Amino acid sequence: MAIYRGPGGSGDATEDAASEVLLAIQAKDAAIAAQVAAETARTAAQLAETNAETAETNAETAETNAETAETNAETAQAAAASSASAASTSATNAAASASTATTQATNAASSASAASTSASNASTSATNAASSASTATTQATNASSSASAASTSATNASNSASSASTSATNAAASATSASGSASTATTQASNAASSASAASTSASNAASSASAASTSASNAATSATNASNSASSASTSASNASTSASNAATSATAAQTAQTAAETARDQTLTAYDNFDDRYLGAKTSDPTLDNDGNALVAGALYFNSSLGSMKVYTGSVWVDAYAAGTSFLAKANNLSDLTNTGTARTNLGVAIGTNVQAYDADLATIAGLTPTNNYAIIGNGTSWTSSALPTSLPSQTSNTGKFLKTDGSAASWELLPTVLPILNRSGSSISVSVGNGVLPILNRSGSTVNVAVN
User: Which of 94-98, 215-219, 447-451 holds the top average pLDDT?
Assistant: First the structure.
């Protein structure tokens, strides 16, 4: 018959003990599962902490990079006046570093969020483990009470008591294991909570570092902008300075050219005045012997003789009047009728009648009146001049080489030159000497003849 009516409800002690053992085993399994979950949560918390620390390190590195970029930007700003190109490059580097810092800050924030989620999960796991441990403790107490009741009923149910004792022993062992697992779970939950707290702190530090990195990046961007503006201003100033220098050089060149031209014009003016002063000596009372500079007179020099009231010119040796009075000229309209002496004028011109040229003559007038006729000659008949025809023919010259023309007063003929020339020698006798063509024999002192060519 049934003896025990414990917490399990209706049934005998054997069934109640078995139920308690089953509950203890379930509690143990739940405690083990809670321990595993707590360890997993702790591992996740540690991983989250590691990620948060890594994110913090990255954020600090990003901050350092941003500060370095800011320093570079400030250096580039200071050097902008001397190198606009370097400032532009530094600005580009600063912008790249700022972008990297922003990306790393975002990664840090993401890691902090993940760490916070892991910490929350670990806290939930720890709570579940504590609840499982409390349930296991209550069940262990209940098992102990059941074991005590089973011992009291041992007399009535020896076999059941033995089984119940065994079950009680197992339940006690399970309770002990569950208690140990609960303690371990509690410790791991505490560790997980600590890791979660550390992860939260790291996340907070990472967020602060990210904020500082963002601020440094903003400062670097501002410095880069300032450096770029300074570089642009420096470039504009350099361009303006170059333009001003070029304009100044051009003005200096133009001024030098103008000065040279002015000096050249001055020298040319002085030379022209000196040349004029050497040629026009001004008004003087008598013929000068030197020019106004005390140098020798040059041909063509002029001066005005104030004593005579006339202009004079130097010929190179003497001073003469540079012009004649109008009363000394012949008037064109008079056609030479205003000459004082026409005979003297003809003589001066080299056309004196009877000396240089023929004057009017009646014979010349007669001859001038003759009609020019071909092959006619002017012939005087003793009282006047007339023209008469020349002979129309001469003897032929063919085969008459070396002959001379001879006329008897009415006809002409060719005659041979004599071939023998009589010459009287020293003894008084006459000798005959042959005469060659174009040769004349001459008798010398020795009595012999010499032929001399006759041109």
Answer: 215-219
Give me the mean pLDDT over the 77-84 stretch: 55
Written as six digits, the tokens of 282 are: 């001004």
Q: Please count the CA atoms within 13 angstroms of the CA of 276 that sit on its side-chain side.
A: 7
Q: Give the number of other Cβ atoms within 10 Å of residue 155's Cβ.
A: 8
> CA 74, CA 90: separation in Å to the nearest integer?
9
Q: What count of other Cβ atoms lies within 10 Å of the Cβ of residue 265?
A: 10
Question: What type of residue is 374?
Answer: N
Range from 52-66, 394-408, 433-447 carrying the lowest mean pLDDT: 433-447
Question: Contacts from 106-109 at CB under 8 Å and sequence distance 24+?
Answer: 106/210, 107/55, 107/58, 108/55, 108/56, 108/58, 108/59, 108/206, 108/207, 108/209, 108/210, 109/206, 109/207, 109/210
Measure the CA–CA gap between 106 and 134, rounded to whole angstroms.
Answer: 42
d(CA 379, CA 385): 6
Q: Is the pLDDT of residue 182 over 80?
A: no
Between CA 14 and CA 414 the distance in angstroms is: 208
**What is the token pair recorded at 9?**
């409800």
Distance CA 99, CA 88 (A): 17
| Amino acid of residue 393 | S
CA separation for the pair 430, 364 (Å, rounded): 54
Query: How many Cβ atoms are within 10 Å of 398's Cβ, its own excluded?
Result: 6
Separation between Cα atoms, residue 24 and residue 221, nearest integer Å:
66
End-to-end CA distance of the chain: 209
DSSP state of 323: S
Say which residues have a Cβ less than 8 Å from residue 134's Cβ, sequence separation at least 6.
182
